[in-house]
Automatic annotation (TrEMBL):
Top-level taxon of origin: Eukaryota
Organism annotation: Tetraodon nigroviridis (Spotted green pufferfish)
GO cellular component annotations of the record: external side of plasma membrane; extracellular space
Protein name from the UniProt record: Immunoglobulin C1-set domain-containing protein
Keyword Nucleotide-binding: no
Length: 251
């Protein structure tokens, strides 16, 4: 079954005290396919798909702007870690990680649009942007210092809402157009049945399908089985396609 909801997601990772790992990392993904990357070692935004080279034909300054955006985010998250440390009663060096993700979703059938933005600190939820109200909600008391800062800047929050529901969607559609032959392709799976022993569950394995939106079910006649079935996750293959399985308990 083909997905109709497309996504553009940005992932930022800012750490302190983590050895042998970039202090800052940014990854951009379209429909869960990585399209660009930047980190504090290279300090340069770079494409991760060949078709992303097409962007500069229409926009020669694209990669310079992306690099500037990512490096600006690094400075922002540097400051946030320093602001948060006292709130969590943290002193000295130590290992600390600030992560954030934001982006948008677009349904190419219903045309419905959604946006999201959230941040986490040391592996726990910290802030979440409420799109409809255009406000930040703190997931824990220590995040209030950042939440208040956001609420005081109402214009900035409205600007974020506009970005997530307009500009982000504009770029999502643009990336989909650039990578249409890859992102919008369809590949059917090969399907096999596996059983270790006569008393073992029978596993239905489907692999090699693209895109990754799919369902796999066992049926008895027209009835879909649920209680007897243990479904597996959709997992990526090395060649960019996907696989999934569902085990049927015969006992």
């Amino acid at each position: 079954s083909l997905p109709v909801t497309h996504t553009l997601k940005y992932f930022y990772y800012r750490s302190s005290g983590v050895p042998n790992f970039p202090e800052f990392l940014a990854v951009v993904m379209v429909d869960d396919v990585q399209i660009s990357h930047c980190d504090s070692n290279t300090r340069r935004a770079e494409p991760r798909q060949e078709w992303m080279e097409k962007v500069t034909a229409d926009d020669p300054q694209y990669w310079e702007r992306e690099t500037a955006k990512f490096l600006d985010a690094q400075q922002t998250y540097n400051a946030r870690i320093e602001i948060l440390k006292p709130s969590f009663n943290q002193t000295g060096a130590g290992v600390h990680v600030y992560q954030s993700t934001y982006g948008c979703e677009w349904d190419d059938e219903t045309k419905k649009i959604n946006g999201f933005s959230q941040g986490g600190y040391d592996g726990e939820d910290l802030l979440r942007f409420k799109l409809k109200e255009a406000i930040c909600a703190a997931a824990k008391p220590e995040a209030e210092i950042l939440k208040r800062s956001g609420d005081e800047k109402k214009a900035e929050m409205e600007s974020l809402k506009y970005y997530l529901t307009h500009e982000c969607v504009y770029w999502l559609k643009k990336y989909l157009d650039y990578g249409r032959s890859s992102l919008m392709r369809t590949e059917l799976p090969s399907v096999s049945l596996l059983q270790k022993e006569p008393s073992s569950p029978v596993t239905c394995m489907a692999t090699g399908f693209y895109p990754g939106g799919a369902t796999l079910s066992w049926r008895r006649g027209e009835e879909e089985l649920h209680e007897e079935v243990e479904p597996g996750e959709i997992l990526p293959n090395p060649d960019g396609t996907f696989q999934m399985s569902a085990a049927l308990d015969l006992s």
